[in-house]
Amino acid sequence: MSSVFANVTLAGLVKDGTYMETLHKVQRLPHLNVFEQYWAAWYAYIGNDILATGLLFFLLHEFMYFGRSLPWFIIDQIPYFRKYKIQPTKIPSAKEQWHCLKSVLLSHFLVEAVPIWTFHPLCERLGIKVQVPFPSWQRMGLEITLFFILEDMWHYWAHRLFHYGVFYKYIHKQHHRYAAPFGLTAEYAHPAEALSLGFGTVGMPIFYVLYTGDLHLVTLCLWISLRLFQAVDSHSGYDFPWSLNKFLPFWAGAEHHDLHHHYFIGNYASSFRWWDFCLDTEAGPEAKAAREERMRLQAERSAKKRV
Length: 307
Ligand SMILES: [Zn+2]
Ligand SMILES: [Zn+2]
Prior knowledge:
binds zinc ion, BN860_15962g1_1, 64% helix, transmembrane, two-stranded parallel ribbon, mainly alpha, oxidoreductase activity
């Protein structure tokens, strides 16, 4: 029996032969908006919350990841967009894309399938709710903003660690196979990397609910969808005049992460620029020249003090 309604017997009463028939019955219930109706019908129709959450997260991941990678694949085939490509001479070949697609699919089914299927029992233990109605949009917005900030912090440090010696050689090197990334390469990584960097996406909301005791699963769904969009877009290889980083200067975007793939060093954060800026780990020749100039001025100043 699903716990999607406060009254547990209600899920059994609205369940019908098909999803659409269940949805029609749910639509007759008062005080539910259209998103809540689709959500409640999904849980009521499946009738098993472990299966409903597992299937929902698996489908959400596949749909968002490949759905977001497809427009970038199409853009790569259209010469008009070449002027916006950050490394314009490096267009991914069909062979490279095919290799990447096979590897990502294998990793999704083998590595990520297990955590996805065990996710609902974990949610229940932590107190992550599936029940309708949803929290307010304002609350979801604030929680998602916080997750973006926390994930970025985790990503910065874990990614920086992955660039040291054995961590790079045996784990992170796989992700750097493509010096000019394309959308699909966002999750092209060693399983150990997928799990440890992925912890930033799932672990931060877990810490949040451990602290507050209150989080809705739909907020997690929205957060994971937006995080997938961010990850795929940052690997797209394109920087448009209308890209988000042109309006929000602290947003990393593709330009930031493309430089990381190009130079293998610097720009370790995922969503924002502040960690790399504050800790002086920005990538690229301009950042390197500015760093060297700062070091030269500092050396001059300390030499003067000694005189
Ligand atoms: Zn890296
Ligand atoms: Zn990358």
